[in-house]
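Students often ask why we bother encoding 3D structure as a string. The short answer is that it lets us treat folding as translation between two languages. Here is a chain of 137 residues written in the first language.
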Amino acid sequence: LLYGVLRYEFARRQRAVSALAESEQRYRSLFERSLAPMLLIDPVSGDIVDANAAAADFHGWSRDDMRRLNLRDINPSPREELDALIPAGMAAGRTSFQLQHRRADGTVRDVTAYLTPVAFGRRTFHFAILHDVTERV
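And here it is in the second language, the structure alphabet:
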């Protein structure tokens, strides 16, 4: 009986590990292959934790360089304004923000950033999908 219970528990854990790996692979594939610029941002520090290839192309930096930047490095708004805008907006239930992003070449583009909180372990990050709306503005 004990052997059967152990075998059942082992199989259940193996299925959970496989499901988790599949979920991670699905997320990574969607993030990596998307043509829309995507950022994963630490909401406390503003550090860009991850950027997909489309975000790197849009901003003109490599993905590694993007991961060394802070949101303040790509947004020309005054620091106090930027530091207050997103937390206050998200607390009020907003999910989209009209921002400007500075590219590596110094040009500034208008973007709509769609933000949603995502949890990884015990930490929550802002997942942002960006749309260039410069021509519309």
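Translate back mentally: The chain has five helices and five strands. Keep this in mind for the problem set.
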